[in-house]
Amino acid sequence: MDDKQVLEQLAQSVPNITARLPELDRDTLVQLQAAEVKGANRTTLLAAIDERLKALDDAGEGGDQLSGSSTKTTESAGADGRKGEPAAKAAGKPSPPPAWQHPDYHGVLSGEQAAWRVANLKPAAEVRRK
Question: Average pLDDT, stretch 86-93?
Answer without folding.
Answer: 54
